[in-house]
Specification:
The complex is a heterotrimer of chains A (about 300), B (about 700) and C (about 300). With about 300 residues, chain A is mostly helical. Chain A contains 14 helices and no strands. In chain A, helix 9 (about 205-215) packs antiparallel against helix 10 and helix 12 runs antiparallel to helix 13. The termini of chain A are close together. Chain C has about 300 residues and is mainly α. Chain C has one domain (about 15-55, about 90-295): MetI-like fold (Orthogonal Bundle), CATH 1.10.3720. Chain C has helices at about 10-25, 30-50, 90-125, 125-140, 145-155, 160-185, 190-195, 200-210, 215-240, 250-255, 265-295. The model of chain C is unreliable at about 1-15 (pLDDT under 50). The chains are: A mainly alpha (about 300), B alpha/beta (about 700), C mainly alpha (about 300). At the A-C interface, helix 1, helix 6, helix 7, helix 11 and helix 12 of A face helix 4, helix 5, helix 9, helix 10 and helix 11 of C.
């Protein structure tokens, strides 16, 4: 168990190293292009070379990578070209905003999807199962920018209940969080619900549930003690892995609602060609994804006695 | 025994499943009365409805199953009108059940203690301390060593035999009146099975519970039951006291069942197997009249295919039969046997010489790095030597984990031996992977596989798959000749030509296994390895496939290596036997030598463990204790010493026994003195041997 | 490919046809699958015959800001109205379907070709090849997909070909993982052992023995992935990283309409409904197919 966890940690570090190297290779192997990005398209070759020399770009590629990676680990990602400020100063508040959004989404989505999934899986093919299943396919089929459009059309333009943008210009406003969160929940809960349903339905037909029922145990005990514990292992890992999807969805939602989060930062940087911000955002995004994968693996091991005491 | 009310009464019970295709009647008109303390067996092949009966008695038929007709009474109380609460009072407490797959019947994420204790706590309101004491009691009752350790374990941490004992303990914990056992030993090895059967017999004698024992194995029924019901296609076709049904069976199906099972106490010359022709009708395509009539050699048109056949009384002891001609048929007249001609073996084809196969366990963990480089090995095959001649059938016998399948892999070139030689026609192939063998070498060595359900590729028609082999191994390129060869092979395995166009899922298990045989013989092989080819088939089909395999092998003078755990089948098919235990050959010799004393103690126990469906045969009871050791960590000295009832302390647990020659070709791996070996009594005694 | 057919070619084809017919009949048993198929077919047919339909040029400015079904000054009625530049929404939605389906289908097919190749070889051959492919797959899968798209498109620029490339990079590792899992399972079957013991080459075993038996789950996955790729392409369009203008693209249509939401809501709602219905079609079809395959 401990060994497995260590092995996971090593592979996580390996992946981070690989990803950072690829990123660096992609964006900074062509030195002149880097200087061009920094000094603008109209800078002369001489200007670029002077800049390169001043910023230590005459060292070998690998040394520069090591230097860059070392700084990144310390939280120093260089200076944003677009915002003319250290990347770290821009990034952390943005990341905080996204974390607030993600927290709201998870806080609502997890109980909702687990409850619906368990209800559906409890009685396969029953009416409640059909309704929940259809609802979850329906909502997962509407991409974020489409549901954002539709929800805005209803709640912003028709009913006028909610603000159409979430720039939070007048300080933190929970009302501005509702639509972005709703869009993400709507898109993501269906998947977790369906996973929970499948897992629950499978457990309910398993021989050990039959054993529990034929032991004469009360129904509540069969469900609460025997079924749920086993049925929730699979959804747990799925929920943690949702981080990866959420980070994708977050970009669209933040752009749609002008929410000042990390996703919008990444997209703006990408459209501007702000390579240092792109690098920083990607590293953070991958780190979050890989780390959640790690958490999910560890959780799976802890939940599953076959691995815990293997 | 004074209570005259039967524990359980079923009258005209009919159970159906409701699917998209409509109502599928699984059990029809089922009558059974179980008295206090009585053990009743229900026997039948797969699909006969015997498990459905068990779950119907529990009133647990799933969402799409229902009891559509009849009565079901438990101690006189109508179970069909019971509410969910009433049922809960009966399930577990009054009627308990033991299942076929112990591994999946236990909750994988709860400790054994919790699963045992929750019954008294949540049913009877016992305190945790009381429940724990009770749980430890029943664990001791089922003879589990070290109950405290078992209590703290999760199900995957104990062996299959132990899991089944835990389930039995779980059933006993509320002292039920009736115990339902649904194929409780099918998933277990034969020596482990013997222990469970002995336990069940002891418990029922001690506690006086009534039992319903469901099995496909007539031998187990004979060992455990007082009365037996034989089921076929959803109906009981014969019921009565075990003595009556086993010795004076009146239904042609019962008779056919007995004639098709091999007995370890007699061989193919004394008692050839007679398979039942045809196959079980699908539940919604049952014939009019008697369900068995289409397969029955005594069926008479106009009588057997008219009205539904009722049960008829034969004697006052409750022997009843569902046959219109029960008092007319003379089974003896039909029993005229054709003997199997003896084939004399030719020159040596295969020589296995001190072959060894270790698998290295790749351990990249930190622990291993810290501990240092001591690699661990699975000693799958330790020291294997034997020879096989042309036209000879050599059986390799052993329980799971003995290394028999690993040996087959090395032989086929899928794995390479660690040491020793395997010579085919004098040429060593032990370290020659399949890819480096010449096409001829590949063609002369073919295999029949265990599982009929994945021996054929489900995506392609059967004929195309055989044709591929004909081209690949027979070197045939002409389309016309390939076609005729495919048809020839199909007729060799007694299948009609139109099977060629079918896909595997349109064939029955037995038919698929025949195709598997046709495929193995397509390239005129010198040596065919058959890895448990019939273990997944029903007995009546088994007989046909065994017969066919023997016939083709003898006809083509092929050497057959028959890998099996089933000694009864082995005695029927093979000329010589190699007994394996934990990677060692512990005994080998001609079939007669191995099945008669002197035995290796393991062979002796193995023979004793086989349930025999013949009342005229008595056998010595030898029940092995302990579990099969792991090949990763074999015991010191003799591989069998940890479980051996004849162990010599200080010798067997220290030194590897010598390989000794007891008679022409009869070798055993044992420390026992000649005097002990010579005094061994036969395991079987009785008419047949 | 070396088909394992001697003389049964004709027979196999006959049963092949019969099987295809049978599978379509099977589909009828699942109303969900039928509904999904209907939605998908609707868009596919509409996209195919778009040039033949009596539509306005999707890029031709007519009368701006017409609501759906409202008569314009010149007496013309635009069923779905017009956009801010006065282009016919109906024509734009339909031609947008062409774009999305063409690129989604193409990109998914390419991703599948790579994913299957990698998955089958990794699963069947195993060893270092498997470890290398699995590691590369894990690296790519550890990117949140949208981040991966943004990086690739930023680096290479937004063209149809680069979108296909990005989809391949993002999807192939997932497909590989599924195929590899299926192959690891099928590999243990006796018929694979039988092929090995008669000396078949690994290529033959992978193509003839393994792949055909993995097709069921792969078809279901392909449906889901087509839906998701559709979303991706539209989403890139929405974010401004999609196909170059002026041809209509559902995502870009929404992006253009967004600032005008308060008075020209139809401009955003119509493409949003279009993409949702198409993706719903793919998802329902996948669901229905899965349900049918589990019944057997």
């Amino acid at each position: 168990m401990f060994v497995l966890a260590c092995r996971r940690l090593v592979s996580m570090a390996l992946i981070m190293a690989m990803v950072s190297f690829l990123l660096f290779l992609l964006f900074e192997s062509d030195k002149l292009a880097v200087a061009g990005k920094v000094l603008g398209p109209y800078s002369s070759v001489e200007q670029r070379e002077i800049w390169l020399e001043k910023n230590g770009y005459d060292r070998s590629f690998l040394t520069r990578y090591a230097d860059w990676a070392g700084n990144a680990v310390k939280g120093d990602f260089g200076t944003s070209l677009q915002l003319r400020a250290p990347v770290a100063d821009v990034l952390w508040p943005r990341l905080g905003n996204t974390a607030i959004l993600a927290a709201v989404v998870f806080a609502a989505m997890i109980p909702l999807s687990l409850l619906l999934g368990v209800l559906a899986g409890l009685r396969e093919s029953s009416l409640q199962d059909r309704v929940i299943s259809v609802a979850s396919v329906l909502t997962t089929s509407v991409p974020e920018f489409a549901s954002a459009t539709l929800l805005s059309a209803i709640f912003v333009f028709e009913l006028g209940w909610l603000p159409g943008t979430s720039a939070m210009t007048g300080g933190f406003n929970f009302k501005e969080l509702i639509l972005p969160a709703a869009v993400l929940i709507l898109f993501d809960f269906g998947y977790v619900t369906r996973m929970t349903r499948a897992s629950m339905a499978e457990v309910m037909t398993s021989p050990y549930i039959r054993t529990a029922i034929l032991k004469g145990l009360p129904y509540r005990r069969v469900i609460m003690r025997h079924a749920l514990r086993n049925a929730l292992i699979a959804p747990f890992t799925v929920i943690v892995l949702q981080m990866n999807w959420l980070l994708s969805g977050v970009i669209v939602v933040e752009v749609f609602f002008s929410y000042k989060g990390f996703g919008k930062l990444l997209l703006d940087a990408s459209l501007f060609g702000d390579i240092f911000v792109i690098e920083a955002c990607t590293l953070i995004a991958v780190f979050v994804a890989v780390f959640s994968q790690f958490i999910s693996d560890i959780g799976y091991m802890l939940l599953n006695p076959k691995i815990r005491f293997g | 025994m004074s209570d005259p009310t039967p524990i359980l009464e079923c009258k005209g019970l009919s159970v159906s499943y409701f699917t998209r295709a409509g109502e599928i009647p699984a059990v029809k008109d089922f009558d059974l009365t179980v008295l206090q303390g009585e053990a009743v067996g229900i026997v039948g092949e797969s699909g006969c409805g015997k498990s459905t009966v068990a779950f119907a008695i529990m009133r647990y038929l799933g969402a799409n199953g229902a009891i559509v007709d009849g009565e079901l009474r438990f101690r006189g109380r109508d179970m069909l009108s019971m509410t969910a609460d009433d049922l809960r009072d009966i399930r577990g407490a009054r009627i308990a059940m033991i299942y076929q797959e112990p591994a999946s019947a236990l909750n994988p994420s709860m400790r054994i203690a919790e699963q045992l204790m929750e019954v008294p706590i949540h049913r009877d309101g016992a305190s945790r301390a009381e429940a724990r004491a009770l749980a430890l009691d029943v664990l001791a009752d089922v003879k589990l060593p070290d109950p405290d350790r078992i209590m703290d374990a999760y199900p995957h941490q104990i062996s299959g035999g132990q899991q089944q004992r835990v389930l039995i303990a779980m059933a006993l914990i509320s002292k039920p009146d009736l115990l339902l056992l649904d194929e409780p030993t099918t998933a277990l090895d034969v020596t482990i099975e013997a222990g469970i059967v002995q336990l069940v017999k002891e418990l029922s004698a001690r506690h006086g519970m009534a039992m319903i024992y469901i099995s496909h194995n007539l031998g187990l029924i004979l060992e455990t039951c007082d009365r037996v019901a034989v089921m076929y296609s959803g109906e009981v076709v014969e019921i009565g006291r075990v003595a009556d049904v086993f010795e004076h069976m009146r239904h042609p199906y019962t008779q056919g069942l007995f004639a098709s099972i091999p007995l370890p106490s007699s061989d193919r010359h004394a008692r050839p197997l007679r398979p039942i022709p045809g196959q079980l009708p699908l539940p919604h395509r049952r014939p009019k009249g008697c369900n068995f009539a289409p397969r029955c050699s005594f069926a008479v048109a106009g009588r057997c295919d008219q009205d539904a056949v009722p049960m008829r009384q034969i004697n006052g002891d409750g022997h009843e039969v569902r046959c219109v001609r029960w008092d007319e048929i003379d089974f003896q007249a039909a029993n005229a046997n054709e003997g199997i001609s003896h084939v004399s073996p030719g020159p040596v084809v295969l020589e296995v010489d001190r072959m060894r196969k270790y698998y290295e366990i790749k351990d990249n963990s930190f622990a291993a790095l810290i501990r240092g480089g001591a690699a661990r090995y699975v000693r799958a095959n330790e020291d294997i030597s034997f020879t096989a001649r042309e036209a000879e059938t050599v059986a390799i016998v052993g329980e799971s984990g003995c290394g028999k399948s690993t040996f087959a892999k090395v032989l086929m070139g899928l794995e390479q031996a660690t040491a020793g030689e395997v010579r085919l026609h004098g040429k060593d192939i032990s370290r020659l992977p399949i890819g480096q063998r010449s096409p001829e070498a590949v063609g002369i060595l073919q295999m029949v596989f265990q599982n009929p359900f994945d021996t054929l590729n489900p995506s392609w028609a059967v004929g195309a798959q055989i044709a591929r082999v004909v081209r690949k191994l027979g070197g045939e390129t002409d389309a016309g000749r390939i076609r005729s060869r495919v048809l020839e092979l199909l007729s060799l395995v007694k299948l009609p030509a139109d099977v060629a166009h079918r896909r595997p899922r349109q064939l029955s298990g037995g038919e698929k296994q025949r195709i598997g045989i046709a495929r193995a013989f397509a390239g005129n092989p010198a040596l065919v390895v058959a890895d448990e080819p019939v273990s997944a088939l029903d007995v009546s089909v088994q007989a046909a496939v065994i017969g066919l395999l023997g016939e083709i092998q003898a006809g083509q003078r092929t050497t057959l290596l028959f890998i099996s755990h089933d000694l009864s089948v082995v005695r029927y098919l093979s000329d010589r036997v190699v007994v394996m235990y934990l990677g060692h050959v512990v005994e080998q010799g001609s079939t007669d030598q191995v099945f008669r004393p002197p035995y290796h103690p393991y062979t002796e126990a193995l023979l004793s463990a086989v349930p025999i469906a013949d009342r005229s045969v008595s056998k010595r009871q030898i029940v092995l204790g302990g579990e099969l050791p792991s090949a990763l960590d074999p015991p010191a000295g003799c591989p069998f010493q940890a479980r051996c009832p004849r162990r010599i302390d200080g010798l067997c647990d220290r030194d590897m026994p010598p390989r000794r020659e007891l008679g022409a070709g009869h070798k055993i791996l044992c420390h026992l003195g000649d005097d002990v070996l010579m005094e061994m009594a036969p395991v079987f005694a009785g008419a047949a041997d | 490919m070396d088909r394992p057919v001697g003389d049964q070619g004709a027979a196999a084809d006959r049963t092949g046809l019969a099987r295809a017919a049978a599978s379509i009949l099977l589909l009828r048993e699942s109303p969900i699958a039928m509904l999904g198929l209907a939605l998908v077919l609707f868009w596919v047919v509409v996209a195919l015959v778009a040039p033949l339909l009596p539509l306005h040029d999707p890029n031709l400015p007519l009368t701006p800001f017409k609501k759906p079904l409202v008569e314009a000054k010149d007496g013309a009625v635009y069923w779905l109205g017009t956009d801010h530049k006065g282009r016919d929404m109906l024509a734009r939605v339909i031609f947008g379907a062409r774009q999305v389906l063409l690129w989604a289908g193409f990109a998914t097919a390419v991703a599948y070709a790579f994913g299957i190749m990698m998955g089958v070889t990794a699963g069947y051959l195993g060893g270092w090849w498997d470890e290398v492919l699995s590691f590369v797959g894990n690296v790519l899968l550890s990117f949140p997909v949208m981040v991966l798209y943004i990086i690739i498109i930023t680096y290479l620029g937004a063209t149809g070909f680069n979108i296909v490339l990005a989809v391949t990079f993002a999807s192939a590792p997932g497909i590989m993982r599924i195929v590899r899992g299926l192959v690891l399972d099928i590999k243990t079957r006796d018929y694979i052992l039988a092929a090995e013991t008669r000396g078949e080459t690994p290529l033959y075993i992978m193509l003839v023995e393994l792949l055909p038996n993995a097709r069921g789950p792969l078809i279901v996955d392909a449906c889901l992935r087509l839906g998701y790729t559709t979303v991706t392409i539209a989403m890139l369009g929405y974010l401004g990283l999609g196909l170059p203008p002026p041809d209509p693209d559902w995502g870009k249509m929404i992006a253009e309409a967004q600032p005008l939401g308060s008075f020209a809501g139809h401009m955003a709602v119509i493409p949003a409904l279009a993409i949702s219905s198409l993706v719903l079609g793919f998802n329902l079809l996948a669901d229905g197919l899965r349900e049918i395959s589990l019944r057997d």
